[in-house]
Design goal:
alpha+beta; 5 helices; about 15% strand
Length: about 140
């Protein structure tokens, strides 16, 4: 937990969270919106920005000026830094990709059918019983 004093003398206690883009350079968190080179940066928490004493990984990208301008415009609209905007977008895309690969979503009917099959499995067919018996013989 950190206690941070802003320029006006107000103090704020934080739980290791950073205000979007402000703490990175100043090490301070603004208790309200703050002017940053003529642009207003709104207060918000970002878990992916560095916290004192923790390691920081670096990612570099190369892009066209048109794409950079589009990213900058979107970041400005949201009152965020380009770094914060890109990290947030990349993290969201990564989370979505992971969920698509590992999470199975079922309708209510499918959930009920799955649960019923687990709790009350059907009796093995005759072919399955023969296969189990033959497998047991082969293992001996």
């Amino acid at each position: 937990m950190n206690t941070i004093k802003d320029r006006s003398g107000k103090t704020e206690t934080t739980e290791g969270k950073w205000s979007a883009g402000i703490a990175k350079k100043t090490g301070k968190i603004s208790p309200s919106s703050k002017q940053n080179k003529g642009k207003t940066v709104s207060k918000g928490t970002v878990d992916s920005l560095p916290v004192k004493g923790k390691a920081v990984a670096r990612v570099e990208i190369r892009t066209t000026p048109a794409v950079q301008d589009k990213i900058k415009r979107a970041a400005d609209i949201q009152g965020r830094t380009i770094t914060d905007f890109v990290i947030s977008a990349a993290e969201s895309a990564a989370q979505k990709a992971i969920e698509e690969a590992y999470v199975i979503r079922l309708s209510i009917e499918d959930q009920n059918a799955f649960t019923d099959a687990l709790l009350s499995p059907p009796k093995p067919s005759e072919a399955l019983s023969r296969a189990v018996a033959r497998h047991s013989e082969l293992k001996r």
